[in-house]
Each structure stands twice: as C-alpha cells, then as structure tokens.
Design brief:
single chain; mainly alpha; six-stranded parallel sheet
C-alpha cells in the first residue's frame, strides 16, 4: 500500500544524496559541504527531476540550528560570555552597521530605494549560525578564546536581528513599503494607552520580552533544568535521559520563540548554557551529537534547494558585488575591529573568516522584505546566491588562514614559543603524544623522565601551554591536518601515542604516520570493537580498550570463594 510520505522522502533524498556527493567532494579534495549544497540544488525546484518539499526541508534545517546552538551552550557559561562582552557587543554592532551601510548603498545603486537597500544590507550583515559553528567545531576552536569571541559576537547579531524583524513591519510604511494594519503588534494596546507611538511601543515590548526570557532562564532555568536532568538520570534509563535532553533543547527553543519572540537558536543556546551547570552535561552533549550532525547536513541541503542557478547568468555583476560585500567588506571590518581591540592577528583572521558568509537570518529577512513590498525578487535572488557562494568559499578562507599561520611560524623559527604557538619539534627519536586531555596528560607524566623527548600535539592552545609548563615541547594542530606529520617530524619519531577519542581522526593520522615513517610504533585507544578493527587497518600497532581494562581491574578485585569464606569465618 502506497502512502504519501513527503517528510520521509525529503529526509531520505537529502541524506542519501548529501552522503554520496559529500564523499565525492572529499575525493576531489573539496569540503564535504560542497556536496551537501549540490545535493540541495539537485532536489530543489530549479533543477529537473525529483523535487523535495522545500517547506519541510527548512523546518528540518531549523532543528539542526537548535541542536547546534544547544550543543554550543553546553560548553559555555555566563563567565565565558561576560569575558568577551567588551569586544563582542561593540564589535558585532559596528560590523552590522558597516555591512548594512555597504549593502544599502549597493541596493540603492540597483534602484531599490533605501527601504529595499536597508533590508538587503541587514541580510548581508548577519552570519549563519550553522556555518560559523561548524567551522569552529571542525577546528576545535569552540572552547578557545577565539571561539568564545565568535560565539559571543553571534549572540549579539542574533539579538539585533530579532529586534530588526519586529521593527521592520511598523517601519515599512516609512521606508516605502506596505504598512501593516494598526495594532498588529501583539500586546501593544497596553503600551499605546500610555501615549507611546507604535515604534516606541514595539521597542519597549520587544525589550520586555527578551529580558523576561533571559531572566526566566537564568533565575528559574538554572535551578529547574539541572535538577530535572538529574532526576531523569536517576531512573537508570538511557532512553529516557536522551529523550529528556532533546525535550529540554527543543521545548525551550520553541517556547522562547512563541512566548517571548526570541529566535529558536537563542532559546536553544540558553537551554544548553543552564544545562551546562549539571554534572551530566557532557553526557547530554554526546547524546545529541548524532542528531546534531544529521540535521546540520539537512541545513546545507535546504540552502541548496533555495538556490536558482540562473541567478549566476541573470545578474553576474550584481552577484559578484554581493559576494564581495559578504566576503570582503564585512570580513575587513570585523578584522579591523578585532585588531583595534588589541587582539592578535590570528584571532582577528579567525573572526573575520567566521563571519564571511550569510545564512538563515538572511533568508528570513529576504522573505519579510519581499512580503512588505520593500525588496524586489531580484534582491531575494542575490541574497540566496550570495549565501550559496559565501558558504562554499568559507572553508577555503579557513584553509588560507591556516596556511598563513604555518608560513609565519616557518619564517620565525627562532622566536620563543608563546601560549598557543608552535614550538620547534624535537630533532629525532622522540615520543609524540596526540591529545593532552585527561588521558594524554597522564601518559606524558608517567613516562620515565629523560628517557625520550616528548612532543605534545593538541588542538587547544591552553592545553599546549600546560604541556610546556610541564617541560614538554608542544604544538597546536589538528589530527586530520595533512601537514601535521612534517610539523611533528614523525619521520624521525620513535613512538606515536594517539589519545584522542575520535577513532576516525586517529586512524587518519596513523595512516599518514606510517607513510612518513614505516618504523614508527603507534599506540592507540578505542571504546568499541568496530573502532579496534579500523585502527588496526590504519596501521596502529597496539590498542588499549577502556572497557576491557575496567573489566580486568574489577575482575582482579573479586575475592576468591576461599578467601571470602575465611573472611566470613573470622567475622563469625
């Protein structure tokens, strides 16, 4: 019996095509998201063949945004946000203002008027949550100072866009668009009775809602959510625990949007941030990881579905100017602001690259501007085209930043290693430890002092600084970085110890280490039987499984029947 299943069809078509084209992109040494975007184009309404449900795809993408921001919130605290507010607030406001002015001027030059130009400029000024966070997560930057600045910047942008979305309808008439019906703002009657004009009423009402939500989450949520999670964990049911985590993330996001008017992403972030105070937060993060990755892929598929390839031919110069505003002007402003606040060049380039794209809020603004009669269809097409191209260019920008950083380090090898910078690797016969977390730091401390020089590799500068303080050489790097074997001098290393939890990343580095040095001995860790097989296939010589070591330890503590009987007899 056949059923009408547009939701299942959209998910299946999106994930299957994204997987196949993502693999093809990786083979061609392109970022996987290029394959995800192309998958969306192929099942979108502007190409022949099967057309997926665009509305359903957008809603599925929203789930990805919610889970992604929730995961980021789990690694954040109020202290982290407070530490970056001095640069995140003025930086985000200044960058939005500058990018909006450039975009508005471009829109005015295209003949849309200042109202259409304002919508266009605002759409080009705000970065995509998913793209920014995926870029930071791929490089393990979320918990670094650069990552915290970028996330704080993103939250300020989010709040500004929420305000813009509620202010544009009452301002549409003044901007040359279609004015909404009087009293369209829900709850405005009370404030208008006090003699306030519609714009002041909207501002005041929005401020009250946003601050009410933040106060509710920080006062009530910080007490209720961790306790609720602890109570569910007490049932001993993993299924109920995972369900509770998802219910809190999606429920708070949905409720915040419909009751307080804030965005789904912001609501999810605060839900994660208050849950981070629970000792079970790390388990909550791991439980949501598979869904977060799957729905984040559907976000890129949904972006591809919106793109009309004919835009490339219809207005190539206008599209080039749009991309230049997003990737060039906006990034240059962000770079200048970060440098102006005294941060180093690497931090400034990371923030600039993170913001050099647009996404979900830009699409919402484009639709709203069209509905209000402010933005022509051509403007909406340029926003979608600019989003598609800027998302594709974003990984290349990050690769360029990584290349510049390595080049500067190679040009100044004699400079002393600062916190977060690379130190020259030992000359030969050294032990390389990848990962200086809970396990890697203990491995380094247990090695016989002076037996062999130790080089620590970690993706977090703070951990590398700790390794140097303990007397080890250290360099900042990602396990999947193709240049890592050369930077770590693996060709002359004696032993490679892989302590990172990701078997996929560890296997990639093990294979490259074997290519660089066929005599190197590689040690690894695994948490499951499938990981063991993968690591052995990748060239790892010896593997320690955590579950087996725990089992051996517990079995060794079980007393023999004779010893237990003797203990009982003596007690009697």
């Amino acid at each position: 019996m056949l059923h009408d299943t547009p939701l299942i069809a959209t998910i299946v078509a999106g994930l299957v095509l994204a997987c196949l084209l993502g693999l093809a992109a990786q083979r061609l040494r392109l970022p996987a998201l290029a394959g995800y975007l192309l998958a969306g184009v192929l099942i979108g309404p502007f190409t022949p063949g099967y057309v997926a449900d665009q509305h359903l795809a957008s809603e599925l993408a929203e789930i990805g945004v919610i889970l992604l921001m929730f995961g980021v919130g789990l690694h954040f605290s109020l202290k982290d946000l407070g530490a970056v507010k001095a640069i995140a607030i003025p930086g985000a406001l200044g960058q939005i203002l500058a990018a909006t002015l450039v975009g508005a001027t471009l829109g005015w030059g295209l003949g849309w008027g200042w109202g259409g130009g304002l919508i266009f400029g605002l759409a080009l000024s705000v970065a995509s949550t998913v793209v920014l966070l995926r870029a930071l997560q791929d490089r393990r930057l979320i918990e670094t100072e650069r990552g915290r600045i970028a996330v704080g910047w993103l939250i300020v942008e989010d709040l500004v866009m929420v305000l813009a979305l509620v202010l544009l309808p009452p301002l549409a008439g003044l901007l040359g668009g279609d004015a909404p019906a009087p009293g369209a703002t829900q709850g405005a009657d009370l404030f208008q009775s006090l003699g306030l004009n519609p714009i002041a009423t909207t501002l005041l009402l929005t401020g009250v809602k946003v601050f009410s939500f933040i106060a509710l989450m920080l006062i009530v949520g910080r007490r209720v959510i961790p306790r609720a999670l602890q109570y569910v964990a007490g049932t001993g049911s993993r299924e109920l625990f995972s369900l509770a985590v998802l219910a809190i993330a999606l429920g708070v996001a949905f409720g915040s949007a419909h009751l307080f008017g804030v965005s789904l992403a912001l609501g999810a972030f605060f839900a994660g941030m208050v849950m981070a105070e629970s000792p079970l937060s790390s388990r909550a993060a791991s439980d949501t990881l598979p869904l977060r990755d799957a729905f984040a892929v559907l976000f890129f598929v949904s972006v591809g579905m919106l793109f009309d390839p004919r835009t490339l031919l219809a207005a190539p110069l206008a599209l080039a100017a749009t991309v230049a505003t997003i990737v060039g002007a906006k990034s240059a402003v962000a770079y200048g602001i970060v440098r102006g606040f005294g941060h180093d060049r690497q931090t400034a380039m990371t923030i600039a690259a993170s913001l050099a794209q647009i996404g979900e809020f830009s699409f919402i603004l484009a639709v709203l501007g069209t509905e209000l009669g402010l933005l022509p269809a051509e403007g909406q097409g340029l926003i979608l085209g600019g989003a598609m191209i800027s998302i594709l260019l974003n990984p290349a920008l990050f690769r360029g930043i990584d290349g510049l950083a390595r080049r500067r380090q190679a040009e100044t090898p004699s400079e002393p290693a600062a916190a977060g910078s690379d130190a020259p690797p030992p000359p030969a016969d050294h032990v390389v430890i990848v990962g200086y977390g809970r396990i890697g730091s203990q491995v380094a401390s247990l090695l016989a002092p002076g037996s062999h020089p130790v080089l620590v590799i970690d993706d977090q500068p703070e951990r590398c600084a700790k390794a140097r303080a303990a007397g080890h050489a250290a360099l900042v790097g990602l396990a999947q970085d193709e240049t890592l074997p050369a930077r770590a001098n693996l060709a002359a290393a004696r032993v490679l110890v892989l302590t990172i939890p990701s078997a996929l990343e560890a296997g990639t580095l093990a294979g490259r280490a074997c290519e660089a040095n066929s005599q190197i001995e590689i040690l690894g860790r695994a948490d499951a039987e499938g990981e063991v097989a993968h690591l052995y296939d990748s060239g790892v010589d010896h593997i320690v499984r955590g579950d087996l070591e725990v089992a051996r330890g517990l079995a060794g503590l079980v007393p023999s029947p004779r010893a237990r009987g003797a203990a009982r007899g003596s007690a009697a």
